[in-house]
Amino acid sequence: LVENFSHIKTCKNNSTSSDHHDHTSNVIPVIDLLDPEANTLIIKACQEFGFFKVVNHGVPIETITKLENEAVKFFNLSQIEKDKASPANPFGYGNKRIGSNGDVGWVEYLLFTTNPQLTHNNSITIPGNSLLFRALVKEYVNAMRNMGCMVLEMIAEGLNIEQKNVLSRMLRDEKSDSCFRLNHYPPCPELLQTLSGRNLIGFGEHTDPQIISVVRSNNTSGLQISLKDGTWLSVPPDPYSFFINVGDSLQVMSNGRFRSVRHRVVADSLRARVSMIYFGGPPLSEKIAPLSCLMEEPDEQILYNEFTWSEYKMSAYKTRLGDNRLSLFERK
Ligand code: GA4
Fold first, then answer.
1. What GO biological process terms does the UniProt entry carry, in alphabetical order (predicted)?
2. What residue's CA is closest to ligand 1, atom 1?
């Protein structure tokens, strides 16, 4: 049994039982989108954590649960059925393998592009009620795009940028290269998670290359974020809220003011974790560089060389999951 997992990484379970955890579990910023102070609080959260939780988001619970139920139905199918939607290169069903450079995790997933102009998705046959599945994904992704854009507009306001849609327009663009991921982390056999006090890695540590990611999970824990001092903080699950990650592209556009948050998922639970993530990205041809409207102080150094999203993506797909992908674009 143990041999079957030997290729999947483990990590010390340092953040679930210590006092440190009790002390820090309240620190994840919670942003009430209806709070008049929300803009300022979001900026602080993006600087300090690159991560925050969103409440009063206005997304109907039905939009979420209808899709979650279909996803669970899919993941409950037999392996033979699920494999009909594989491989994920890059879109489709994937099992344990993440990307194409040798990364593995205790996870299975479905990956979609949200761009209807790309034909990739049409070639994925999702066993079961494919039409219903697609319709629910479409509805959900729409809601995520709207919320993601709302947050990006609040960020622009919080940064005192005149053009409110300077970031959100990239997600709204019909050519926006965004994607959507459904992850299923099966329960991890008890024996393995307690093996020498280590947890099995569900999804290895990484940052997201896009602008922002909107994460929703069921009530099972597992997500951890890396704090500035390098310690890992477990994020208590909350199926009624969303979690926002700052991605690499937003770190660049903010000229390093915001942190692209490193995060990972540990399979430390006896229950399955199901997460649904919208990755808001720019059009492939979009130039990503520190926003000129932020660079008006003459002594502020430009930290990154300009690149197109297409260049960054190509470079990212050549990296291992845990690599620091932005280091190649830092201005020396
Ligand atoms: C991380 C964020 C998204 O899940 C993702 C991932 C992608 C994949 O699973 O195919 C990547 C990873 C992610 C970054 C580096 C490359 C590409 C796996 C990998 C090793 C869909 C994305 O856009 O980048």
1. coumarin biosynthetic process; gibberellin catabolic process; response to light stimulus; response to molecule of fungal origin
2. 208
